[in-house]
Amino acid sequence: MINEKERALKAIKDEILGLVSSPLYKERIKNKYFPVIGEGNHSAWIMFIGEAPGENEAKTGRPFCGRAGKVLDELLVSAGIERKDVYVTNIVKDRPPGNRDPLPDEIEIYAPFLDRQIEIIKPKVIATLGRFSMQYVMSRYGLEFELDSISKLHGKVFTTDKFKVAPLYHPAAAIYNQHLLDTLKEDFKVLKNL
Ligand code: URA
Question: What residues does the Uracil-DNA glycosylase-like domain cover (predicted)?
Fold first, then answer.
């Protein structure tokens, strides 16, 4: 039987599927892509928030299933966290063309869906992956005065009245950078201890 949570998450999916007002909608149709809504445990203690789907993600409709996803999986394993226990999503739910950064307008269109996902899943910890989700989550949830560059904030933990926020580097940045991968592994240990 479908419960309230499932119903609310399904409503988000349906709205995004019909989001013709998004400038990324026509890209979705043109390329036969899927929107990437989010995936994982609907009562997860921790939610990971990336930037926007890459090509593999848009082709499958699944978040972090390509090369950056392999790095994320490796980081989860290294911290002893199981992917089935977490929820993984992005701010922007459709793929920006050519892997470019999401534009402010696009973040504005999709962020309310992310806010609703947070409200439904109620994670105790939000781990932001990369600077876009860090900037959005921290400014949206009362941590705007703490904002700084990701090189200063990664691995720290901030507290809001709803959840803790742990800004992390984006796993894609560690694909060819062993030093950054080691840093991410250290930062993931912090998550496990929360
Ligand atoms: N990068 C992201 O930010 N999100 C994904 O889902 C995949 C790659």
Answer: 37-189
Cα 127 to Cα 5, 72, 153, distances in angstroms: 21, 12, 12
Which domains does the chain possess? 4-193 (3.40.470.10)
The confidence score (pLDDT) of residue 2 equals 73
Q: Determine the distance separating the centroid of ligand 1 and the alpha carbon of 1, expressed in angstroms.
A: 31
Please tell me the distance between residue 53's alpha carbon and the centre of ligand 1 in angstroms.
5
Q: What SS3 state is found at 40?
A: strand
Q: Over the chain (194 residues), what is each successive 10-residue block's mean pLDDT?
A: 89 98 96 97 97 97 97 96 97 95 96 98 98 98 97 97 97 94 96 88
Which spans in 122-174 are helix H? Answer: 131-140, 150-153
Ligand 1, from 36, 37, 49, 64: best to mutate by most atoms within 8 Å of Cβ?
Answer: 64
Residues with CB under 6 A from ligand 1: 36, 50-54, 57, 63-64, 68, 90, 172
